[in-house]
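fyi for ur records
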Amino acid sequence: MNINTTRFGTLAIDEGDILTFVDGLIGMEQCRRWVLLADAQNSALAWLQSLERAEVALAVVSPRRFVPEYMCRVARRDIQPLGLTEPTEAQVLVIISQSGGSLALNLKAPLVIHLAERLGRQIVARDDHAVQHRLPGTAVRKSA
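which gave:
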């Protein structure tokens, strides 16, 4: 199937690549169908592209790539709808954004994805993680 996106133009994707976030994401509850796209220039980065809103593409990364000790505790009821039988079945990603001229990770509300089932949920971690964990040395250049 073809999807139209603001950031990437028209893309051909397989139906099997669609991830369903039944509850949507925090602040975007109406966006329930997404596709995960690799970034062509940065292997650490991926894009979570909404199928409902062409203009919504969220930059996501594996939190452990930047915060190796990252772990989050979640309530069993929060991940039960994903059908995970083992923790290793879960892919955990966090949204990366610009904050105060640098890049920041939202470690408080990770995305937990059961890739085999193509289901995901954004979970609010019980740990005392930052919503904006700034990455040192990531000054963002402003375009003219």
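Residues 2-134 form a domain with the BH3618-like fold (CATH 2.30.290.10). thats all i got for now
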